[in-house]
Design goal:
With 217 residues, the protein is an alpha+beta fold. Helices cover 16% and strands 35% of the residues. The protein is built from 5 helices and 18 strands. The strands form 5 sheets. It has a 6-stranded mixed sheet, with helices on one face. A 5-stranded mixed sheet has the order 6-18-17-13-14, with no helix packed on it. Strands 10-7-16 form a 3-stranded antiparallel sheet.
Amino acid sequence: MKLTLNKKSFTPQRIFCIGQNYAEHIKEMKSDIPKTPTIFMKPVSSLVSPGEEIRFPKHGQVFHHEVEIVVLIGKDGRAKTAEDAKSFIAGITIGLDLTLRDLQKNLKDKGLPWEISKSFDQSAPIGKFVSYLPLFPFDDIQFTCMVNGQVHQRGNTKDMVFPIERLIIEISRIWKLLPGDLIFTGTPSGVGPLQVGESVKIASPQIGTFEWQIVKP
């Protein structure tokens, strides 16, 4: 899969994901607000383009949607300040961090890694990217998730526990950023189940609208 932005093509490198980055979602998950960003990763094979069918995963039963703002990194290096972090952003879109909640809960309760609940094939649908410009309303991006036309999630980047600049700084402290890296920045409250035959649509007035259909495995 190639990522395109203004006729420029990026090869996806790594998918960094942020957990627990909206207070209301943290509350609904019965967790505590973290002191530093919670970072996990997905493989590039989890990406799904707009309009593709998403197969309900065979290895779980409770299949949840989590809508998120997604950042595309456009250059390599490490960010040290908030202004420096912004210079690494090439584009922004919205996406879904699809999660098998039953597996995740079971694994977390046992203190085990939970990649199989988050990092499976087709677990990261993303929309098309728009360019990040200095005038882009970076700290006021609205976005929603709808299932069969009914709104389930509403979010705004101004409500993040850790703003996008902080996420870029924290990630680049550990990994040198590369062009084509993606950052899923966390989901607001309202996560819920998806079933076979349902459509899931994500939208942002500043970015666009993207939709997928859930089909049998």
